[in-house]
Amino acid sequence: MKKINRIIISFIILFSWGCDKNFDSINTNPNTATADVFNPGFLFTRVQMQTFLGGGDEGFVSNMMYFSTFVQHFTTLYDEGFFAWYGDKYVYRQDANDVLWNHTYNVSKFLQDVIEQKKEDNDNLYQMARIWKVILFQRLTDAYGDVPYSEASLAFYQQIKKPKYDTQEFIYKDMLATLKDAVAKLDAGTDNFAKFDIVYKGDIAKWKKLGNSLMLRLGMRLTKVDIGEAEKWVKDAISGNGGLMSSNDDNLVLRGTDGGGVNASLIIPWAPQYFRGVQSGSYISATLFDYMDTRNDPRLFKICAIYPSTTSDPALDDRDPAHQKGLPSGWGELQINNIPNYDPSNPLGMRQWSDLNRSAFAKFDGPRFLMTNAQVQLLLSEAALRGWGGDAKDLYEKGVRADMENYSNYDSDVAITTAEITGFLNANPFVGTVDFNAALNQISGQYWLACFLNGYEAFANWRRTDYPDVIIPTNYQVNGNETNGKRPGRLKYQADEPRLNAENYQAAVQKQGPDEFITKVWWEKP
């Protein structure tokens, strides 16, 4: 018995020694992405994807339901008792108001990881990440004003859990300096991280054009608040290393990849609202419709369709130009009989107005554009109007042509021919530069059209230029109208901020003004 016990004890000791000898290798997961093997490029891919396709809330609720109705691209009949498309009647809906804020900081966390991990390398991926941060935070600060920026997403790296709000002036100056520095340091002769870049596939020349084009957009944003700085940065952008966007191949765009709409993270954010269940209640605004119709704009009947019912098959949509009409902004269902172009004899009732041509512009695997060559050419036209270089007429025509040509990227069915484009430009010539306001109105009107489906940028440029003058703020008298008929200046801060970041929130309100829709952001204040 003692002999057996000794054998057992010896076996246990031997087994334990063997386990200890190989403990690290046995208990290490070979699939774990540790810091020494994980490539932050994977995070950058995620950031790009979520910026474009990151959930219907940002791309649909914030971008379209608020901002695209602010600028009267879209409108709705929803009124008292049930609100959607909130910007049409300037209604505060807390969860919708907070969407862009929450989305930006969720994406920013992953982007900050890329920046922190690549900072020492100072390589192309680091420069791309810095440029992408400008894309995220320009959109955010344009929407809310002063926001956490320099201390944002640093809870892990610097234990900053209650970030300060930077002034918009500081944010813009930092973003402009960042763009200039990042563009200068992009190097086509080194690793371009093509396999992680799902937008430009590592094309450094296009990244340089993007950086300079963003610099142009940021510089133009300053025309109302600091014309001298605006001119300086616009000229820097024009002369910048690598040039500006010059063709539609340079557009900042990403397509959905799931044509069947199964994976919500891989589709255009607004597609489900137009193809699933009860349609959400939007219409093409008469402001947009009439502006295009009076000019015989060939884009108009590409974007319009009438739905026979809220649940109808898209194949049954009516695209006959003779049947299309826009719904005036700011009206509600309770007032339907008073709407100027309402036809009580039309059997479609509330569905008699045009909506989005969803078969082309709301495909699950369609494109989403965040910046386009057309927008760049129109900004350059305005810069030329201001005497900052270039030919305003030539650039204006390039911008209009580029936007019309870009329609083919949505669907071949809405492509616009060269003859149609030339005919439009001949029938609607540039008004010239003698009357500055008339020219700015015309350029801004085309910029407004070139921002269709990008409500953020359309709203920002309208606030900056006050044009096109056809956009008249609505004043629907309902409980919840936040502005009493005045143009909104911003969204309210995220609802948790007064409680979770109280000191910094209060400091921001003290500097910027009341936390209300009507308060203007820094660059809108003359």
Q: What labels would you give this structure?
A:
21 helices, 8 strands, two-stranded antiparallel sheet, mainly alpha, disordered N terminus
Number of strands: 8
Taken as a percent bin, the fraction of beta residues is: under 5%
Chain oligomer state:
single chain
Coarse shape: globular
Please outline the major beta sheet: 2 strands, antiparallel
Residue share in helices? 40-55%
What's the gyration radius in Å?
A: 26 Å
- Integer average pLDDT: 92
How large is the count of helical segments?
21
The termini sit apart by 98 Å
Low-pLDDT parts are 1-28
Topology as a string of helices (H) and strands (E) = HHHHEHHEHEHHHEHEHHEEHEHHHHHHH
Q: Supply the helix-strand structural class.
A: mainly alpha
Q: Record the strand order, biggest sheet.
A: 1-5
Question: Can you describe what's shown?
Answer:
This protein has helices at 2-21, 23-26, 41-53, 56-70, 94-118, 124-144, 155-158, 168-185, 204-220, 227-238, 271-275, 286-293, 300-303, 358-361, 373-385, 392-406, 418-427, 436-450, 455-465, 497-500, 502-512; strands at 74-76, 147-148, 165-166, 252-255, 282-284, 304-305, 355-356, 367-371. The protein is mainly alpha-helical.
In short:
The protein is mostly helical and 526 residues long. The protein contains 21 helices and 8 strands.
List the helices and strands and how they pair.
Layout: H1 2-21, H2 23-26, H3 41-53, H4 56-70, E1 74-76, H5 94-118, H6 124-144, E2 147-148, H7 155-158, E3 165-166, H8 168-185, H9 204-220, H10 227-238, E4 252-255, H11 271-275, E5 282-284, H12 286-293, H13 300-303, E6 304-305, E7 355-356, H14 358-361, E8 367-371, H15 373-385, H16 392-406, H17 418-427, H18 436-450, H19 455-465, H20 497-500, H21 502-512
Antiparallel strand pairs: 1-5, 2-3, 4-8, 6-7
Helix pairs in contact: 3-5, 3-6, 4-5, 4-19, 5-6, 6-8, 6-9, 8-9, 9-10, 9-15, 15-16, 15-18, 16-17, 16-18, 18-19
